[in-house]
Amino acid sequence: MNEEQRSILLQSSSRFPPPKGTKLSYGTAGFRADASILQSTVFRIGILAALRSLKTGGAVIGLMITASHNKVSDNGIKVADPSGGMLTQDWEPFADSIANAPDPESLVKLITEFAKKENIPLDGAKAAVLLGRDTRPSGESLVEAANKGICSVVGAVAIDMGIVTTPELHWMVRARNKGLKATELHYFDQLSTSFRCLIDLIPEKSGDNHHPIGKLVVDCSNGVGGEKLQVLKEKLNAFLHLEIRNSDVGIRCASLDGDADRFVYFTLTSNGDNNKINLVDGDKILSLFALFIKQQLSILNQDVGVGVGVVQTAYANGASTKYLNDLGLKVVFTPTGVKYLHGKAEEYDIGIYFEANGHGTVLFSDHFLSWLDGIKNEPCSGLEKQNAAKRLLAVANLMNQAVGDALSGLLLVEAILQHMGWSLDKWNQLYHDLPSRQLKVKVADRSAVVTTNAETSVEKPPGLQEAITALTSKYPQGRCFVRPSGTEDVVRVYAEAKTQEEADELADSVAKIVQQFLGSHFIA
């Protein structure tokens, strides 16, 4: 690092002193905290993003200012890598160290050492970072802090994309690095065009007793998704009846989280003074997508030849896994966390993943997309096969290939329901969830629990897994696992069984076993 660069970093960082008595850690959601203490952190992660761009040969990096569904006074920042995916885990310790550096001199020392270790040029080479934010009032000032951090690296430029959803920014980063047009207009055009293509390819009288599926009410959590869904609504008025607000009894509803990277469906039914929410979660969304994709592959006579991988975590309801296995699909498990699910899904021709919380997407390999293009453009393939290929290509264009995206996922659900001629109730009847229960057991040291086999089995302490297995075997359709939390000193317990009473009993019994092994108390 030359003296000019060192001087710029020292001078600019002195304007953003870190908060005293606060230690921040970079996780799946990036950094999150009360917005009032984030100026320094956001500034420093701006520097990291510029360094990441330099490390990757000048590729575009993304910085998103959001705290998703957290309260309005919070905010956060996370980094998108050139692929549009999350920041590589190898850089997370560096993010932690610079965020918590006590003074400018310590910060510059860390940057100097890291740049030398990673062979990052600090000689004025070009770097580019896209900035985005949600609708929180604190977002504007934090974007400015990030901008200052980026521009404190000589040769780096910040490009402010304004108010966007988190998946939009990830999509833009991926598109830019593929040499494609990547404005918000292009994002909405791709989603709306792909959705209309799927609707146009619905065979006449498709589905059982094919009938209009009716209005969809969407709760956008007072987040950025409401503003952006309004744009899609205007583009798709002739194809989809959307109403954007909170919730309503007796109406088919969907709900997005604050930064619009997760979504679920639900209906609200009223029984006198009591309202009941009938939830259609990420497991059901995954199952609907998997069913539709398998149907198209069957038309192409490729339901066995194509490598389709369905990726779940241990938290997926056992009934969903059984349903997918019964369809003849390969189901694999990863540890909890989108970075694990997405990475595994990338290994297949078609990789489908969703967490129960509604975060997920469908990934397609370049090789398989090229094969579909060949089928689509070959007249001797026959109209039915050509249409199946067109549908899968439209799904690939509609679904965000960088990250889970509530807007694109919601449009695919609506297209498939129209294709099938299904109501939400019929969709919800694909299978019936097994009753489940989750508990938290507070412990002194969560690292004392070490898991294996995608967190479904305990390796340490010795004997704990054997005790869990013995308890679980007493319950019909019983399943139970424990895992250490990634964010707090608790061990999480998940249990399923044939009845709710048995699931509750199994979870309570296993929580007590964890207490005996670790010395703790459990929190319902």
UniProtKB/TrEMBL annotation:
Catalytic reactions of this protein: N-acetyl-alpha-D-glucosamine 1-phosphate = N-acetyl-D-glucosamine 6-phosphate
Cofactor: Mg(2+)
Cofactor stoichiometry and binding remark: Binds 1 Mg(2+) ion per subunit.
Source organism per UniProt: Lactuca virosa
Residue ranges constituting the Phosphoacetylglucosamine mutase AMG1 domain according to the UniProt record: 281-422
Record-stated family: Belongs to the phosphohexose mutase family.
Entry EC number(s): 5.4.2.3
Pathway: Nucleotide-sugar biosynthesis; UDP-N-acetyl-alpha-D-glucosamine biosynthesis; N-acetyl-alpha-D-glucosamine 1-phosphate from alpha-D-glucosamine 6-phosphate (route I): step 2/2
UniProt keyword Metal-binding present: yes
Region (Disordered): 1-21
Broadest EC class assigned to this enzyme: isomerase
Known function: Interconverts GlcNAc-6-P and GlcNAc-1-P.
Domain spans labelled Alpha-D-phosphohexomutase alpha/beta/alpha: 57-90, 118-177
Domain Alpha-D-phosphohexomutase C-terminal: 455-512
Protein name: Phosphoacetylglucosamine mutase
One function term, GO molecular function aspect: metal ion binding
Keywords: Isomerase, Magnesium, Metal-binding
Domain of life: Eukaryota
